[in-house]
Amino acid sequence: MAGTGAAEPTEAPSARRIREARRRGLVALSGDLSAALALVAAIVVLSMGGARGLAELEGLVRAALAASPRDPAARATLVGRALNLVASLTLLPLAPVLVVGVLASALQTGGLVSGAAAAPDFTRLSLGRALARFASPRVLGAMARGLAKVIVVAVALALALCPVLGRLPALAGLEPRAVVGLMGAGARTLGMAAATAALAWGVIDWALARRRYRLSLMMTRSEAQR
């Protein structure tokens, strides 16, 4: 009997076990993959509207320098243009980012909506259990994965930053518009490098999440027989 109770789970999870897990809100989900796809969407949107945003910013600066500081109508117009520019550069890109993030999570979970996953767990208030969870293999594994993600993104940024730094001396003596254009190109290069590294890691983390999820549902031979 002791040997049966200590048996290792070696059998694939049954359909009923998977359904019960989904009912409790337990699914394979990689937050890193959803965040990486949202980052890619943000970079694409900003790249498409970056030139227009810079042109609007230049026009706003020129209008502010040419306007009379004593004219209330001119000040109101400038404030309105500034607010529209802030909205176009910040609020509008958030919509596709939010949509992509939600869709990425929905595709991973199969559209699951479960209130059980958000239910409060008051056992987490126990200090002893919190310390035990902190030293658990699950938490240590999550910390290791987080460190690996930081290393991957940092290496990608370092490789992309070297050519950008090499072009800095060429900025001396250029017109402000050319300097801004080159800086924008450098920022786009860094953003794409970070997004590519984050996306690659997100795919790896998604595969690891599916593996962890399947292992957590494995059954012993006696459970499978029952």
Question: Layout of helices and strands, plus pairs?
Answer:
Layout lengths: L1 H4 L9 H9 L7 H36 L5 H38 L17 H8 L2 H30 L9 H42 L3 H5 L1
Helix pairs in contact: 3-4, 3-7, 6-7
What would you report as the Rg, rounded to the nearest angstrom? Answer: 26 Å
Q: Structurally, how many domains make up the residues? A: 1
Tell me what portion of residues adopts beta-strand conformation: under 5%
How many extended strands? 0
Shape: elongated
List segments where confidence is low: pLDDT < 50 over at least 5 consecutive residues: 1-5
**Can you give the helix content as a percent range?**
over 70%
Give the termini separation: 16 Å
Order of helices and strands: HHHHHHHH
Instruction: Specify the biggest β-sheet.
Output: none
| Average pLDDT score | 79
Class based on secondary structure composition and strand pairing = mainly alpha
Number of helices: 8
